[in-house]
Amino acid sequence: MEIATGYFAKAKTYVENGYALVSIARVAPWFLAKECNVYPCDCLAPTDEILALKDKPDEYAPKYRREILGNLKATDVYHRLYMIARQENTDKVVLMCYESPEKFCHRHLVAEWLTNELPDNGIVSEVVAPKKR
Fold first, then answer.
1. CA dihedral of 10, 34, 25, 114, whole degrees rounded to 10
2. Is residue 6 a part of any domain in this protein?
3. CA distances from 116 to 74, 119, 120, 124 (A)
């Protein structure tokens, strides 16, 4: 199964390219629910306390790794994502939140963690979907 990361602004493009949408944010944008299926993966969402550090990546990253990722098993997260992909009849999922790719975001920490913890699955990276014409 392919696991990628992305952001909500590109959700429609991801769907057009065969990805199941998975929110790892505290709350997904309300308007997306009207347009496509967005599955929550709340276990990867940062707490309010961690979110308060979003402009301080040097504090945010270790706290997120310790308090969120440190309490999870990558195989359990993978299984949840696999079940979502099956429900959407695909073999691709995109883990989404709000920040654009160039900004610091917890999804980059999740991608690094999954890549390190599940090396047989390949590298989890930002999906580059073709631009609409």
1. -60
2. yes
3. 9, 6, 9, 9
Is 133 a domain residue?
Answer: no
Note the pLDDT of residue 120: 86
SS3 per-residue string spanning 31-85: HHHHHCCEEECHHHCCCHHHHCCCCCHHHHHHHHHHHCHHHCCHHHHHHHHHHHH
At position 113, the amino acid (one-letter code) is W
Question: Shortest CA distance to 9 belongs to which of 37, 27, 29?
Answer: 29
> Domain range spanning residue 97?
2-126
pLDDT digits (tens, 9 = 90+) for 85-121: 999 999 999 999 999 888 999 999 999 999 999 988 8
Summarize the confidence of residues 1-21 as an average pLDDT: 94
Tally of domains in the chain: 1
Residue 132 counted as domain residue: no
Domain assignment present for residue 131? The answer is no
Q: Which pTM does this prediction carry?
A: 0.92
Q: Are 44 and 24 in contact (CB under 8 A)?
A: yes
Maximal C-alpha separation, the chain: 43
